[in-house]
Every structure is written in C-alpha cells, then in structure tokens.
Amino acid sequence: SIGSFLWRTYGVFQSGNTGNYYWYLKMSSNAESIVTALKSYLTFFVLMNVIVPISLFVTLEIVKFIQSKFIEYDLDMYDEDKDLPITVNTTNLLEELGQVSYIFTDKTGTLTDNNLIFQKCTIKGVKVDKKSLIKDRNNQHNSPSSSGGGSSGISESLKHLLHQMDAEDIKEFFLCLALCHSVYVYHPRKDDGQIKKPPKVRRGSIIGKLPKWVLHLNQAAQQEAAQEEEGEEEGEVEKKESQESNRDEEGKEGLIYQAGSPDEETLVKVAKSIGITLLDRTADSIILDVWGVREEYEILAEIPFTSDRRRMTVVVKKRSKKDEPKPLIKVYTKGAEDVLLEKLRDTNENEILMNKTKSHIKDFALEGLRTLVFSMKTINKETLAKWLRRWRKAKGATGSNEEQTLAAELEAGMDLLGATGVEDKLQNGVERTLRDLSTAGIKLWMLTGDKMETARNIAYAAGLLLPDQTMTVHTLYASSFDELDSQLDRVLQKSRQVSQVIGSQSTAHKKLGLVIDGDTLQLGIDPRIKNKMINTLLRCDAVVCCRVSPKQKAQVVHYVKRKRPG
Predict the structure, then answer these.
(1) What pTM, to 2 d.p., does this model score?
(2) Handedness of CA 375, 376, 377, 382 (dihedral sign)
(3) DSSP assignment, residue 426?
(4) CA 198, CA 186: separation in Å to the nearest integer?
(5) pLDDT of 227 above 70
(6) Is 363 helix (H, G, I), strand (E, B) or coil?
(7) SS3 for 429-472, per residue?
(8) What is the C-alpha separation between 176 and 410, in angstroms, rounded?
(9) Half-sphere exposure of 474 (CA within 13 A, CB side)
(10) How confident is the model at residue 356, as a pLDDT?
C-alpha cells in the first residue's frame, strides 16, 4: 500500500513535468492518491489478517522445537547414574515454566537425597555418636549381659559405653529400633551361594550420542558446576561408602530390608550394626538375632504411623521355651518428641531424662539431623486382653473416634528410652538450583514435618534462606491470636522498612524470609486472621513451614492459589 502510494505520487509528478499520461498507473490528484492508498492498505489488511498469524504460529513452533532440543541436550539436566536425559514431551514447556511464580517443595526426597545416614543418638540421657556404635568386623567379643560384659560384633567404644550405663537399657533401646517398624525382610534366591543382583545400569551412553556443538556449549556450564561440586564430593563419598557397606552386609547375610520409609530401614540397620539383627518378619511375629541368640517375638497389636498421630506403637511378647521364665508383654512406641514426651509416666526419673533428652534433641536439630524419640512400658495380660477386645470392636465401627481414644490410652504412662538423630544429605546442585530460581523471581516455599531447628538448618544449607546481609528472616511462633496478630504487624512493618534507604546504602533488593511452625499456621488459618496471615506470607521471598501435616500443606497451597490465581 505504501509502495503503491509512493509510485502513484511519483507518476503524477512525472506526468505534470512531461505531459505524458500513464494510464496503467491510474494516476489522479495527490488527494485521490492518498485515499486510494488508504483503501488499498485496509483491503490488504482484511485479506492478510488470517495468513499472517498462521505463518507466525509455524515460526513460533519451529523456534519452540529448537528450544526443546537445547533443553534435551543440556548436560546439567542429565542423570548420569541412571543414564537418563530430560525428555521434553510438549513444545509449550517453556511457556508453562515462564508462568511459574511460586514453587512449593517438601524436604525429604526433594531437597534431600532420601538416603539417611545415622549420626547420633541419646540413650537414657547419655549422648552417643556413630563411632561408638559402628560394628568392628575385625574384633569380636562375647555376648553382653546385665553384668556389663562384652558383645559379639560390638566395637570397643560400645563396650566402654556399657560401663557408663546398664546394658539392659542399651538392649531395650535397640530392641525398640528392631521391633517397632513395618520393615519386611526379603530373602533373594541364591545360586551356588551367590545372591542374584540386578544388572547395573550402563552409564554415559547418552553422552556419545550428543552432537559435538552441544558438548562445546556445555563446557562453560560444566566448569562452573565443577567448582560448586568440589565441596559436595566429600559428602557423596561418605554416602557411597555407606551404601557399599549396607550392600556388603546384605550380601553376606542374604538379607534385604524393604520399608515404606527410609527412616525405618536406617534404624533397623543401626540396630543390626550393634548386633541386634532383624532376621524375618511375618504378619504376627518378628524374629531377631540378639547378639548371637535367636529370639522370636509375637506381635499382639500394632498401631501404624499416620501423619495425624505422628507416632507408631507395637505390642510384643517374647516367645519363650518351657524352661524359661514367663516373658513380659512390652509396648514400644516411636514418634515425634512433641507428641511422645507428653505421654511419659510422671516420675522424677522420666523428668530428669526428658530434660536431658530435650537438650540432646535440640543439639541434633541444630546440626540438621532428623530426630525420633523412643519409649516403652510393660503391661499385664489381663489389661491387654480388655484393651484388645475394645480395640477390635472400635476398628469395626465407622464414624467413631474410639480408635484414637484407645490408642492414646495404650500409649500413656511410657518410660523414655532415648532418641536418634539421622542425617539426610542434600541432593547435588540443590543450592545452585534454588539460587537460580530465586534470581528468576520465583518465590520458594518449603513445607516439612521436621522440627523448626532442623528445617531452618536445612533451609540455610540449601540456600532457601540466605544470610542476614542478603535476607531478613523472621520467625512466627505464637500460642494465641493476639500474639500472632502482633507478630504479623511486626513482620509487615519490617518488610516495609526493608525497601527504605538506610544511610548511604539502599536495601531495596534485600529479601524477606519467614519461618513458621504448624501450630502457629493452624492459628493463622482461622477466618478471623486468615487474610492478614496469607498476605504476610505472600510478601515473603522464601517461606519455611515446619511441623506441618499433609493436610496443612494442602491448605497452604490452596490458599496461595486462590490469592494468586494462574
């Protein structure tokens, strides 16, 4: 249209100078040429408005396809252990990723590797580290007894520990680890005494298939990643050594533990490392090797772990021979310390042990360890029989809270045994990934059931929470609406101050972080303060919700999606 207008104008100008008339140009006056050009432009616009978007759509699809290939060829998104590159199933992937403004993540198995390593424990108020419990394969001792003798497969450090406390206390603690769980033992078939193992995954095969230009583009990124991974190599070596050690023990004894939770498997292996080995488990019995002596325990009742209860209980009785004394019926419980410590028997001994154990648990949590508390009690046959009749009747009923009442009744009046601290290492590259996501303007929320100290430690280690000079971190911990309301006001006030200029330095880019526990979050969900609570959380760049149940996690995500639709 523009070209036609210019050409017609030029024709009119030439016609006026030369006197020639160019009939095929349909020349007219300048005013008429402008009107004709405008009509031509609108005509072409109407005719071509369908063609242009189609061609643009094809071009964009080609660009998206090329971008998807760049993603698939990215070595930072390649799992070498499984020889598995990323697969782009849709060309709209980048568009969808560009719309992400919030990321909600769990801790276990997401930020961490879900490969738990036992580090420390406290037994009857005595703190014990891993080195004191590692099985010394080169030195074998006699079986322990109440008199404080040695133990088969127990290190000299643990033998020294037997002189600090009663051997029966040590045995009860590790019996609780070996009995209170849902782990089953798998016995693989053997040929000529060798355990059949699955074939190893072939590594690195995808690398040879990549184009050379892709490898060249990734060299810079690999060099940068290599510098960050140097600090992770030590932890990776320790993890591999732990895995190889576990495989060696499994291969020698032909035992492979299968558990729904890595915590249970780890604790069963800890008991095994000091000589209390889980040999087999059926629906109604557990067979152990206790320092060389085979013991069989009958499972009389079991209350499984749930996210609401946050604890597990098992009632067992040792199956004895005719010439042995009548065994006691014991109740073993494990769970979160804030739940279990409330159910201890009210005695001076438990009070002293609870204070010591709380102090040790806090130390474990500050080191980023996951903690679990263990307790036990004995119960007579008649009391258990009455309880079992009521329990079976309650399980058959629907719409009743009788099960919870009976469970609480059985788990009351316990004696404290101790607690464990296990380490769940961060996955490789987590810190760099979270930093990149934060740089992209994405807000990160970690929702976990761990203690506040443990969650905070992991958040700092993963780079979710940043040092004071980069991020201002607040903690919400309240027991009433008024207290929570005042804390929210302080957070909102400080969040406004963050963007102000202090002295000659601007803190406009300083970020805001928040740590909140499950009880405080439950208060904040109340309609009287919910909007203020959610608005405060949404102002934060990083949020850590600890001691939250799966239901609370779902509620948090639901409220944020309602406030930030799309």
Answers:
(1) 0.73
(2) positive
(3) E
(4) 14
(5) no
(6) helix
(7) CHHHHHHHHHHCCCEEEEECCCCHHHHHHHHHHHCCCCCCCCEE
(8) 16
(9) 21
(10) 92
Helices 452-462 and 348-366: angle between axes, nearest 10 degrees: 10
Q: Residue 109: what pLDDT?
A: 80
pLDDT at 97: 83
pLDDT in tens, 301-345: 999 988 888 899 999 999 887 777 788 899 999 998 888 888 888
CA distance 371 to 365: 7
CA distance 526 to 387: 37
d(CA 194, CA 396): 47
Per-residue buried b or exposed e for 133-160, using 16+ beta carbons within 10 Å of the residue's own CB: bbbeeeeebeebeeeeebbbbbbeebbe
Tally of CB atoms within 10 A around 355? 11
CB–CB of 171/253 below 8 Å?
Answer: no
Would you place residue 399 in the very low, low, confident or very high pLDDT band (cuts 50, 70, 90)? low
DSSP, residue by residue, 115-169:
EEEEEEEEETTEEEEGGGTS--TT---PPP-TT----TT--HHHHHHTTTS-HHH
pLDDT digits over 365-374, tens only?
A: 888 888 999 9
Please, are residues 275 and 291 in contact by the beta-carbon 8 Å criterion?
yes
Distance between CA 401 and CA 399 in Å, rounded?
7
Alpha carbons 311 and 306: distance in angstroms, whole number = 7
Beta-carbon contacts of 124 under 8 Å, excluding residues fewer than 6 positions away, are 165, 166, 169, 173, 353, 416, 417, 418
Task: State how far the Cα of 219 lies from the Cα of 269, in Å rounded to an integer.
Answer: 42
**Would you state the pLDDT for residue 357?**
92
Q: Which residues of 528-556 are buried (b: 16+ CB within 10 A; e: fewer)?
A: ebeeebbebbebbbbbbbbbbbeebbeeb
Structure tokens at 53: 């978007």
| Angle between the N-to-C axes of helices 530-538 and 481-498, in degrees from 0 to 180, rounded to the nearest 10 | 30
Helix axis angle for 30-48 and 51-72, nearest 10°, is 50
Distance, in Å, from the CA atom of 361 to the CA atom of 121, rounded to the nearest integer, reads 9
Cβ-proximal residues to 267 (8 Å cutoff; 6+ apart), any chain: 118, 177, 181, 372, 420, 422
Contact 288, 279 (CB under 8 A): yes
Count of H-run helices and E-run strands, the chain: 18, 20
Q: Using CA atoms, how far apart are residues 144 and 142, in angstroms rounded to an integer?
A: 6
CA distance 181 to 263: 10
With 0-12 / 13-18 / 19 or more C-beta atoms within 10 angstroms meaning exposed / middle / buried, residue 169 is middle
